[in-house]
Amino acid sequence: MAIDLQQDYFSLFGMPRRFRIDESALEAAWHGLQGEVHPDRFAHLPDVEKRRSMQWATRVNEGFRVLRKPLSRAQYLLELAGVDAAIDTNTAMSPEFLMEQMEWREAVEEARAAGEVDELEQLHLRLRQHSREVHAGLADALDDAGDYPAAAETVRRLMFIEKLQHEIDDALEALEN
């Protein structure tokens, strides 16, 4: 078994290069590849073969890690398309989005400060629904329209949303302990 370490992750797993993927097919492909390249299968071979199997296994695991999460999959698709999402340098967002984020954060802080677990859970549910809607827009931008600048902006938006979801989770955990 030889894996081309230069092929993209979608090709590695036999998946179409799209945002919308069959996640169960991805997992099945990952399990299949893991069975073929797992270092234990090469333990009796010379060191060079052991190192090669470790490289293959690392590549397979990294590919699975990137493709199984929608946000990292979107970032990877942008990278493959030659689009720099400028995640670290471009934090400019629309005033409407920033206002929305401030409102979300204020609501989370108020619920946390008041110890309102039910309110935090409701905020979490509403944010999860909002996240689904934004993901759907991202899928449309990447798969249907090929609008990479819009997709890059949506990726940056989703990073804010994901961070807020973690803040709600942390607040819930703090209140429940």
Quick recap:
It comes from Azoarcus sp. (strain BH72). 73% of the residues lie in helices and 0% in strands.
- Biggest sheet record: none
Shape, please? globular
Count of individual helical segments: 7
CATH topology assignment of the largest domain: Monooxygenase
CATH superfamily of the largest domain: HscB, C-terminal domain
* SSE series: HHHHHHH
Q: Count the domains.
A: 2
Q: Helices and strands: which structural class?
A: mainly alpha
Measured by DSSP, the beta-strand proportion falls in: under 5%
Protein name: Co-chaperone protein HscB homolog
GO biological process, one term: [2Fe-2S] cluster assembly
Domain J: 8-80
InterPro entries: HscB (IPR004640), HscB_C_sf (IPR036386), HscB_oligo_C (IPR009073), J_dom_sf (IPR036869)
Question: How would you explain this protein's 3D organization?
Answer:
The chain has 177 residues and is mainly α. The protein folds into two domains: 9-68, Helix Hairpins (Orthogonal Bundle), CATH 1.10.287.110; 95-176, Up-down Bundle (Monooxygenase). 73% of the residues lie in helices and 0% in strands. It has helices spanning 9-12, 23-37, 47-68, 70-80, 95-114, 117-145, 148-176. α2 (23-37) packs antiparallel against α3 and α6 (117-145) runs antiparallel to α7 (148-176). The longest helix has 29 residues, at 117-145. The protein is globular. It starts with 8 loop residues before the first helix and ends with a helix. The model has no long low-confidence stretch (mean pLDDT 89). InterPro entries: HscB (IPR004640), HscB_C_sf (IPR036386), HscB_oligo_C (IPR009073), J_dom_sf (IPR036869). GO terms for molecular function: ATPase activator activity; protein-folding chaperone binding. Pfam families: HSCB_C.
